[in-house]
Amino acid sequence: MANLLHQIAPEYFSQSWLNKIKPDVGDNWRLKVSNLRKVLQAIVDYYQEQLNQNIKHFSLPDLNNIGEHGDQTEMGRMLQLILGCAVNCENKQQYIEAIMNMEERVQKVIMEAIQELMLRESSPGILVGEGEIRADLGPASFHPHIKTILEQLETATLTRDETIQRCHELEQQISVINEEKTALASENEKLLNRLDAWETGGDLGTSTLRYKDLKKQIDGLQDELYKLETSRDEYRTKADLLDRENQELQTRNEELQRLADEARSLKDEVDALREMSERAVVYEGTMETYKKKLEELSDLKRQVRILEEKNSDYVQHNMELEEEVKKSGTWRPQLDLYKKQVADLHQKLAEEAKKTDRQIFENKKLMEKMEAILQEKDRLTKERDALKENIEELKCHVSTLTSPDTASRPPSDLSDVELLEVVPHEIREKLMRLQHENSMLKQRAAEGGSREQLPVLQTLVSDLQERQNSLTQENRQLNHRIMELESEVEEAKAAVTTPVAAAAASKNVEGSSVRLSSGEARRITELETKLTQQCERIVSLEESLAKKENEMGAMEERYKKYLGKAKSVIKTLDPKHNPALIPDVSNLRSTIHEKERIIENLERESEKSKAIRDLEEKYITTAFYNFGMQMHRQMIGQRLSTMDQGQSFLSRQRQASTRRVPLGSNMSNRHTPSSSQFEDMKIS
User: Fold this and answer.
1) What residues form the membrane-spanning segments (predicted)?
2) Segment (H or E) for 311
3) Residue 524, number of CB atoms within 10 A of its CB
């Protein structure tokens, strides 16, 4: 059986599968059962994968009875499954012609086995048990007289065979009787000739005796001849009756044959209707899925409109900001300088991130230094007060120690230079340092609350820097996620939207013209799941992007406020007269410049993410419409293939192998829809 299956379908039952069957099993029935189990599993897989037929309603053979006891009925079921594989394979025309060339009795048995297998496949629920009729009858039960017509056809064929046998026997008897009649006629002629010879010559007495004997023989022969003629007439009448009965049976057989042909045609119509009903169920499922996808597409279009409106608002806001920037002509050279710096430092983003971390650390150090400076300021104020007292005491002491010229003058009339010349060197240095600090404190007091605003500005700058760092980290994560989505979109585009793949898919669809293979169905489901997942990811990314844009807008407003305050403070602080604040101011300016660069980089990356999102949406819509066009072509091809009705099973099986649609002419007329057509489809 394995060799036979390998001969029937070598592309499925390959040599590697055949090598798995153990040939030398001997009397070991367990090895036989294992081999039979492998063969049966391969047959069931062939029906499901290659023929797309489910044989779960067919009673599978008991392999244990076959291997252990050699049950003929179970073996017949096994051979029936192999016969179904033969009449449904690619070389089925050859096997059907071999069946048609067999004897009528063998052909009848084979056809009954095939019809039983197909009836159990097509109408699995006609009869459950004896007298139990299911409510969900299969398509074979649409015509209520098919079963009775088949029974009458079988009885008519049996009676026809019996009458033909009886007529043959009667013809043999008539031929035997005719031979006996001719033999008797020849003997009668011989006897008459002998009688004439005896009458002419010989003795009269002996001739009379012989005449009497011959006459008696003639009378007996005439009686026998009469009896034979009567029996011949009876047989003739019987033969006439049998001829009439034969003619009646022939007419009845023709009527039954006509009814059987009608039943076959009805069965073919029922099979076609069954296939159409199954396809209608499949098409309804696909229509439901398409409706759901169209609803999802409408939701996506609605979201796209909302995003476009938001984008237009953002564009308008950006235009307003650009107008404000144009109005502020004082910042134009600085803005050009910043743009040049951004263009130069675009490739050093990683280094800038490290610099920001270092600046955060330095900012913390500056804060600690600021606190130390404030403490030093308090200490110096205390020392200043103490030194003022010491200076007054020293002035008094110097007035007592000076010459008579200076002694005659009061201490208040002495100049600062004279006092410095009199005071020792250490006290002089300390006094000069205190005067410098005093002038600085006066200047800071004259400037107002700018010194008090420095800690506030530094805290604001530190908060802004921490926020900027968190946004940069989130932006890096989003960039990584965008790269993953780009790779997935490229894979989906390579699998669906390439013209080579579309051409191959259309060839496979038109070549099959009846049903989809299991591999294509799995691929379609995988593509649908990928499309749904990508749509969900795009929605989530759009939401996160909207949140990030809102946060960026709020951050930009805060940054502008802080920048205005910082600029006002920097203008109030003059570094020429205050050299101690020059490094602090330069550090603040560098941090502000770096923050501006980071913000511009983030804006540029957000624009890139928007462009990538638009490209992904275009790819998804293109893949969806290509998939819809392919499914539409498949439905049209299947409907056209089901139009050829009114043919029997064998004729359809003969024509299925020779029916090949030329793909070149069809493919030349086909072309993938252009981008303008896709845009029209989107608008509709």
Assistant:
1) none
2) helix 204-327
3) 18
Regarding the domain with residue range 2-122, which homologous superfamily does it belong to in the CATH classification?
Calponin-like domain (1.10.418.10)
The answer to whether 477 and 544 are in contact (CB under 8 A) is no
Q: What are 127's strand-pairing partners?
A: 133
Burial of 493 (0-12, 13-18, 19+ CB in 10 A): middle
CB 75 within 8 A of CB 42: no
Q: Cβ(365)–Cβ(617) under 8 Å?
A: no
Task: Give, in order, the Cα–Cα distances in Å from 246 to each of 85, 163, 235.
Answer: 40, 7, 15
Instruction: Tally Cβ neighbours within 10 Å of residue 230.
Output: 10
- Residue 133: strand pairing partners: 127
Helix or strand holding residue 644 (H, E): none
Q: Report how far apart, in Å, the C-alpha atoms of 157 and of each of 145, 252, 551 are.
A: 18, 10, 91
- CB atoms < 10 A from the CB of 532, how many? 13
Q: Report the chain's C-alpha Rg in angstroms.
A: 56
Helix (H, G, I), strand (E, B) or coil at 231: helix
Q: Which of 335, 322, 286, 337 is nearest to 635 (CA)?
A: 286
- Rounded to an integer, what distance in angstroms lies between the CA atom of residue 115 and that of residue 92? 16
Residues 6 or more apart whose CB falls under 8 angstroms from that of 388 comprise none
Question: Residues 512, 517, 523, CA angle at the centre, nearest 5°?
Answer: 125
User: Tokens at residue 192, please?
Assistant: 């008459």
For residues 624 and 28, give the distance between their C-alpha atoms in angstroms, rounded to a whole number.
58
Distances (CA, A) of 364 to 29, 367, 595: 87, 5, 17
| Mean pLDDT by groups of 10 residues along the chain of 684 residues | 84 84 77 85 85 75 81 84 84 82 82 74 40 36 49 73 82 86 85 74 62 81 83 85 86 85 84 86 86 85 85 81 70 69 68 70 80 84 81 73 47 46 58 69 57 53 65 68 66 55 45 48 70 75 79 77 71 55 67 81 83 84 83 82 56 51 41 43 41
Lookup: tokens for 125: 């629920």
Q: Which is it for the CA torsion 432, 435, 441, 443, positive or negative?
A: negative
Q: Is the dihedral of CA 64, 9, 54, 96 positive or negative?
A: negative
Rounded Cα distance between 387 and 394, Å, is 10
Structural domain boundaries of the chain?
Answer: 2-122, 149-304, 374-447, 449-655+673-684
* Rounded Cα gap, residues 553 and 317, in angstroms: 10
Going by C-beta distance under 8 Å and a sequence separation of 6 or more, which residues neighbour residue 315?
Answer: none
Q: Does residue 13 contact residue 46 with C-beta atoms inside 8 Å?
A: yes
Which of these, 10, 639, 567, lies nearest to 331 by C-alpha position?
567
> Which residue is associated with the tokens 């007292």?
389
Answer yes or no: are the C-beta atoms of 267 and 146 closer than 8 Å: yes
